[in-house]
Every structure is written in structure tokens, then in C-alpha cells.
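ok so heres the complex, two chains, lmk if somethin looks off
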Amino acid sequence: MKRILVGQSGGPTAVINSSLYGVIMEAKEQGCEVYGMINGIEGFLEEKYIDLTGQDVDYELLKCTPASYLGSCRYKLPENLNEIVYRLLFEKFKKLAIDIVLYIGGNDSMDTVDKLSRYADEIESDIKFIGIPKTIDNDLVETDHCPGYGSAAKFVAGTVRDVVWDAGVYDRPVVTIVEIMGRHAGWLTAASVLARTEYEKNPLLIYLPEIDFDLSSFLRDVKDALEQSRSVVVCVSEGIKDAAGKLICEYEDESVMDQFGHKMLAGAGKVLEHFIKSSIGCKCRSIELNLPQRCFAQMASAKDIEEAEIVGRTGVAKALKGQSGSMVAMIRAREEGYNISYEMVPVTDVCNLEKKFPSDWIVNGNDISDKFYDYVEPLIQGEHTVEFEGGLPRLLKPAYK
Amino acid sequence: MKRILVGQSGGPTAVINSSLYGVIMEAKEQGCEVYGMINGIEGFLEEKYIDLTGQDVDYELLKCTPASYLGSCRYKLPENLNEIVYRLLFEKFKKLAIDIVLYIGGNDSMDTVDKLSRYADEIESDIKFIGIPKTIDNDLVETDHCPGYGSAAKFVAGTVRDVVWDAGVYDRPVVTIVEIMGRHAGWLTAASVLARTEYEKNPLLIYLPEIDFDLSSFLRDVKDALEQSRSVVVCVSEGIKDAAGKLICEYEDESVMDQFGHKMLAGAGKVLEHFIKSSIGCKCRSIELNLPQRCFAQMASAKDIEEAEIVGRTGVAKALKGQSGSMVAMIRAREEGYNISYEMVPVTDVCNLEKKFPSDWIVNGNDISDKFYDYVEPLIQGEHTVEFEGGLPRLLKPAYK
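and the predicted structre for the whole thing:
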């Protein structure tokens, strides 16, 4: 009987627990035992783990429980494989008789998988290491998209549409700026384009971090948009920056220190709100969608939940067949319709790289092409039936509580 | 055949359109014609209105369409009833042969109903004026609660619970501050208490504007809470202020001007985030729930939708029986269980007053009593089935588009 160790790392997504569900279910069906690291590799170093096979837990609830059931960490393994931490970790793997380690996470987590797998090669260990992708940023290379992105995109699109409806009710010019997560890649902000309908063209302006942001062009864009529509909704990535590489959210650096002597870092949306108020003088409001983008599980995409589970199951199945040092990737078929196959790619080709939003899908620096629409639309389809109790979604109690 | 004119005013709620639905349906069933003001009384002054009876529109969708279907306004009628605007409005009512005017809104809208009804008395007009309450702030007097509050409370409770789950995943001290709407009344912030479960006591601290806010007590509270729990979630009303009456969100006034010379007004949550970072030094994040509190229709309370419709229907029925100058109030039965009767109260007793959160429901200045739990719990019950199309909720196109 094989023994599997699974961990979650980095920022949560609405479906990171669906991948965990897939791992647990596939492992059980294949007759394996599963242990879960508490707080990722960092917690495991302190021997914090839990037996997931033997628990009397309704794991179905993982599909609509946000955040990381096993807890998380942000822990980067040293570059030098001779560091003692590697020896310690492998001693602990051995002590627990682990055959397979699955790590659910983004870029940094894939780096962890890569290093552990290289160390295993060096010491000729048989332990298999597999990466299970997750990120709302959708910035992992070698995969069509990442589990977690579809649900975040659905939340962003739905919420921006609600905001467009709300912002339009008054009969006077108003600019509403929505700040969306994504420091380096604009995938999530681009999803706001889905909020448009045949009769409602808002958000009229969309700015991604892939394009240099220029305040004077922005001002011109907003003025033009106000000619078209009394209510203008603008969506911006938190990470937009100017041609010199300076983040817009840092434009207040020098002048704005709070009374405690800290930089305000109030966000790009807030900076632009003040800019519009001072330069156009119309009503302006900024909204930061913030954490709910990654933790609002009540509106997760059913397609995303399904794919996240399959990615987890595939990781187990492939490891049992001897794969190691690889990540489960989602490959979209080239033919018509939406068809995903699950294939293994070397994790070393994935870690420490970022997949940017394609520049040819950005129109005029402030809009998104229909090609992106075709890409993203299948990812937000379907709704998972959430179990409510006393008026609120029933969530699974985290393993670390 | 009686002719009804209905308008929506002030900030939207998730169910302001459910009240409109109730008005349209009851009017149709009673054989009346219904016209809708576009952009409230202000738009009507410019003769902007729409025939709601004759339209081929799927009004069922109003139940899950956020914002104000008819558009809104913030327009205060003059105190002096001799001002020309009254004569103009009544000329327009007469021109359209209006018998009944229903106005859906909060405090200011009830003031409009009061003034129009007093003017009608003065000129001996037969037109009936009825107020239909709505507000997420829940601050109208003479009614147990207001349509719109239950849905906002459900969204706040659900989202805070998600944030609590998300904030707890790392194994290190973290303070998360959630800023919730409510400038003068703490009803909505108090609803965050519903996020707690038997095993999760976050949000550990809740501050309402009814209690003077003191930075040093706050610091002590947070330090104590960090002794109890590694992750501390704090919920604050946007309108918290100190003993001198100064808003916490204005604490940066003097020192913080942005590069365009404006006050930052970044919100109470942001101010407290910086305060915690500078005085405790632990990781701290602030989240402003912002507009989605009032416009996220996908998680509206079914009970709230139902009551909002009945309030609208009751307004029509009572006006047809000759009532005027009154608002539909919701009276809760004193016996066990939750039972609401719909009664008329003089609108003059409602307008320009604010119902504060009861001080005896606030515990130690930073917590909420179980009595509030009994009050609020019935208001968030039930989920409305939202119709999705292409992965997103199907919304009704606003009448003003």
C-alpha cells in the first residue's frame, strides 16, 4: 500500500480544496493512504501533519469550502541542495514511509516540487514529487489555464456586472474604478470584459499590467468614455505601472505618509480615483475587490471545481505510474468546442516563470479582444450547488483548527 | 381604473427591485395601470417616466436584478411648500392622471413622501402618497427592519466567514480588518457576528459607530485577541468615530494629502491597518466590502425578497383603500417564532429620524449580544434560485437604458 503526502501552499483559491478532494478520493480508490501536511512544507518540517484517510469527515464539503483546508505557508526552499533542510525533510518523509508527495500551489510551490525532486534524484530516493497547479492569477506556463482562475474570473465578471448596474442608477456623470488582483499578469482583470452585455458596454476601459500605464492617456480615455456613457466603469489590475516601471499605487510615495509614518499604499484604484476627482471633477468611486476574489466559494465555477478535482486525481494516478518532478497541465484541444486533456509537464519548465496576458489580445491599450472571450468563456460555466445551513453556506472546519 | 406612479430613490439594495415587482404585480391584479418614474422624482420633473403595465418584460427577473430598475436620484424637496417645484410636480401628476404615488427609498425618500402628502393636503388633492421602505442600513424607525437589510446582512456574514477562513491559513499572527457600510448605524456591521461558528470565534472584535472609538482601547483589544487566536478578524463600521466626534477615517486629514492636493479618505479600515502595522508590527490587511454589500444579488436572502415584495404589494393595496402620507412598516409579533405583520405608520414619524443599534445589544464596546442574533437570524434565511446564462446571473436590462 502506497502512502501519499499532500500539501497546500501559497494564497488560496476557491477550488484549491477541490484539488485536495481529488487527491484524497483518487488515493482512496487506488487503495493508498493519504497524509496531509499542515501549513505546507514549513509545517511538515515541524512534523505537523494529519491522517486524511482515517478521518470521519464529509470531504464533499471541500468542494465549496474556501481557503486551504490544510493551511498554507510561504516558504522558499534554499537554492543550495546541500542545505540541511533537505536532509531533514527526507528523514521525515522516510519516518512516515512516504512514497509520493503532491504539492498544490502556484509558481513558488512548483519551485518546491522541482527542488525536492532534484534532491531525490541526487540521493537516489524513490519518492515521487508531483505539482498540482492552482492560482487565481492564471500565470503558470505550460498549462492552458490554472484551477482557481475560472472561479475567480466568474466572481470578477459577476461582481463587476453588479457594480455596473449599481453605478448606472443616477442621472449624472460618474466614474467607477474597480481594482482587481494581479500584480504581474492581467488575466483576472481581463475577465471583467465578461460583464458586458449586448446593451451595456461597461466596463468601458480595462487596463492590464502588461501595458505601460500613462496618466495623460488614461485621462483622455476617461473623457472620451464619458462622451459615450454617463456612467463609466474602469477595471484596473492592482499591478499597473508606468513606462519607468513605477507602480501606480506607489504614486503617492513621496507625498503621502500617514500619521504613523507609513506609506499609505492605498492601491492603484484609490490613486486613480483621486486623479479623476482632481482632473475631471466628476463623481468618482473606487472599489477594491480584494480577498473575496479568491475566497468567495458561493459563486465558484462548476467547470473549475470539476477540473480542479481531475487535476488532483491525475497527480495521484501519474505518480502511482512512476512519474516524478512533473506538474499536471491542462491542454486544450485545437478543434472546435472546449476539450481538455490532462498531461504531465516537467515542473522545472514551469517554476519561476510567469505567463503574461498575450499582448495581441490587448486592444488600444485599454480593451480586450474577442479572442480572450473565446478563451475564458468555457472556464466560468456552471454553478455548484452550495449547501446552506441557517442562511449561510456550510463550510468544512479547517484541518488545522 | 386607478393609475399608479412608482419611483425608486437613494442608494440601491439587492431587493429594491423586489418591492417594485410587488407594486407592479399587485397593481396589475387590482386592475390598475402603473407608470414608473425614471431617476425618481428628479427625473419625473423632467417628465421622464415609463409605462410599466404595457411592457413585454419578464418582471420575475426583478427579483434577482440588483440596483434600481427605474434609476435613482438624490433629490431633496424644499422645506417651503410654496416653492414652485410642488406646483410643477402636481401639474405633472395631473397631466398623467395619477391617483397614487409610491416611493421606494430610505430616510430622504420618506421625507419626499411626507412633503408631497402635506402639499396634497394643502391644495386638497386626492392623490395618495405611500412610502415603501428600503435600506441596507436598517435605520428607519417604526419598522422592525427594512427590506434590503437581510440580504446585505447575509452577504456580509457569508463574506466575512469566507475571509475568516482565508485569513487563518498561515501559521503566523495576522490581523484582518473588514470595513462594513453604515455611517451612523451599526446594524450591518453587527451582522458580521453571524460569521462565527461553534469552533471559530472570529470576527473576534466588532466596532459600531454607536460607541465612541478609542485607539488605545482598540490596541489593547487587538493584543488581547492575538493572545487567544493567531488570526484576528476585526469588523468595523465605516462610520466609527472618537469621543470628540471625529471620524476615524479622517484621522489622516492633516498629514495625508495626495499629490493632487486631495484628502485621501481611504476609509477607517485603512487607517486602522496602518495603526496596527505601526504599533504591533504584525501582518495586517484591511478589506472594504464596498458596493457589493448592496448590489450582490446572487446571495440575496429569500426571506428578504419575499418581504420586499409584500411591502410593495401592501403599499398598493392600502393606497387603494384610501391611505396616504404613510409608510408600510413591518411589525414583528412578540410571541415565539418569526412572524411579521404589515401595517401603515405615518411617514412623518419616520422621515429624518435614524434608528440606532440598541446600546444594550453592544457588549464591552467590541462585541454583540445574543439578543441581536435572535433578531437578525430570521432575516437572512433562504436562497433565491438565480437564473444563470453563460456562467453569469441573468439580469433585467434597466428601464433607463
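quick notes: Residues 3-148+297-353+381-393 of chain A form a domain with the Rossmann fold fold (CATH 3.40.50.450). thats all i got rn
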